[in-house]
Structure prediction request, 762 residues.
Amino acid sequence: MNVITKTVSLPDGRTISIETGKVAKQCDGSCMLRMGNTVLLATVCAAKDAVPGTDFMPLQVDYREQYSAAGRFPGGFTKREGKPGDNEILTSRLVDRVLRPLFPSNYHAEVFVNIILFSADGVDQPDALAGFAASTALACSDIPFECPISEVRVARIGGEYVINPTFQQMAEADMDIMVGASAENIMMVEGEMKEVSEQDMIGALKAAMAAIKPMCELQAELSRELGKDTKREYCHEVNDDDLRKQMADELYQKAYDVTKQALDKHAREEAFDKILADFKEAYAAAHADLGEDEMEEKQAMMDRYYHDVMRDAMRRCILDEGIRLDGRKCDEIRPIWCEVGPLPMPHGSSIFTRGETQSLTTCTLGTKLDEKLVDDVLDKSYMRFLLHYNFPPFCTGEAKAQRGVGRREIGHGHLAWRALKGQIPEDFPYTVRLVSQILESNGSSSMATVCAGTLALMDAGVPMKKPVSGIAMGLIKNPGEDKYAVLSDILGDEDHLGDMDFKTTGTKDGLTATQMDIKCDGLSFDILEKALMQAKAGREYILGKLTETIAEPRAELKPQVPRIVQIEIPKEFIGAVIGPGGKIIQQMQEETGTTIAIDETDGVGKVQISGPGKDSIDAALAKIRAIVAIPEVGEVYDGTVRSIMPYGCFVEILPGKDGLLHISEIDWKRLETVEEAGIKEGDKIKVKLMEIDPKTGKYKLSHRVLIPKPEGYVERPTRRERGERRPRPERKSRGDHRQDGAFRDEEREPRDFNDSLDKMGY
Prediction:
């Protein structure tokens, strides 16, 4: 084995080691990455040839976490890992978005990158290491790839930027950004913030670049040592340079003219398609001697070359004349209209439309029982704010079936979730779910989801700290030119044909989330700052449109929303409220028609009661408060007789709290039996708490003090007041038995309250 190990240091002195040549040697490239006790394996395999007809980069990145990495069993019946969870899909997307642009544009062989988490101690976050591992596996192979990259997480803690912080450190961070970059250029940014400024974010990107550069240099050095710096030869495209030039000469001006007409999306597509269709028809007529297979090959080339013609025409029109596809200026936002409450029954709803992009979003408020259980390898928790994003084919006019949720939908929904989650108060008792249905799409539907989500939350009466808006930015910059254009509120075609897709969300006071994909080299921080500041102006404009529609959250919840009350109880009473096997809490829910949930947080019990109305919640509150109440001497209680004894009865004054009502304390007259007073088990009786025994904590009750004393009544003195003890007959020895075998013992009827307590151990 030719095992090579290399190490790189982070700014705080922690190290990451890379090892190759020991495991997974049949792959094109593999490496084992280790940081502390966190270990990942990354492998890459590529097909030798492209599938005929493929004209894109068929890259598949899969990040998976083994439960054994953290010493855990998977949940479910099968007890094995299944389809990837949202966390794994999101990490896969982070890696994919950095790697994909760095494969040659004419390389179309299938490439599979697999990253597996084999060990995790819960200290270091493995998702920040996945990009480094994947790029190193590519560096260890001969698969064509432009340059090494790496990814790091940047958090700001106490005003300082920390690279790849631990899970524990993240609790104190006000910024969480993942940055993917080569040694020279930023490729991808995604993260969330607590209303930070644009300058703070640029500072985080600079800190990330400083940490990433030595990681990329390590990979280049490793590739040279393995002899993999010379990549394999391939031929996945057949080209005709004469045809390419002919199309550029004949079609460029036509495409440029369509670009300047400012047509709507479908009209523009039809106009562009007609240009290509007319050229294909003319070319076929002029080359009738070509066979069917040759003509199909030429037409496939025409599709590729025409894409380049449209791209050049659009870019030059923007750079030279400042005219965009729909006729807007570079910093102009498309027309916006909003509506809240379009649907009668959802707890909150809204429609947000910006140009040809539209989201209908609903908000549902639920109880604690509606929280989502997150059961990832390194995260087992509950989520009380959910956001789901759906992108059906009809929103772009496509005639095809809608299948399950794809990676794109999970990624876009996660970005909108990060944008909004920090603005929901922590003490808001409801579980909140937003569902964004994209009804039209031409431009950023994830940013439309953020805006529609804000409106739906406010329509539902969720007391948001501040409303949030979002915008997608673009960039046009040709290599070697100083001229560039930053575009606000980009169209779908401007995203596809441009050099940057840059989304930012925020309140009036700062950024809350961002996502950036950069496709050009040499993006300076000056250009990035201009894009950020132009995005800020656009966000503020859109925010104004939102607040014109609804200025603040509704003061009242809608009638169909379940009401919730939340109280705190001492930790030691949690068991009493739940009862053995949940008996008490289930009985309370059945009797009151409410739903009751209890959690222990920060040393106290947090009880959430939800019900259809105030009366049912008040009834449940009364029962819970009775359980946690502490009986006080002198208080009068409506008690329930639980059991009857010869010397009195036991009365439940509060749930789970019984006291003795002695026979002498039932009435002012002398009673021989409890039944003589007409008392039966289950009867209600008013009693006063007279005393709590300081040693045993037992309760002594009285009923007679609550009824009028008869005239001329004379209190019979107790034995202690008489100061003498009645002589007791001598006991027989243990050997002295009755004829029936029972021990002889003198039985004595209790004569007063204290004698009874003595006998019972009170």
Summary: The first helix runs from residue 86 to 99. The CA atoms of residues 739 and 745 lie 13 Å apart.
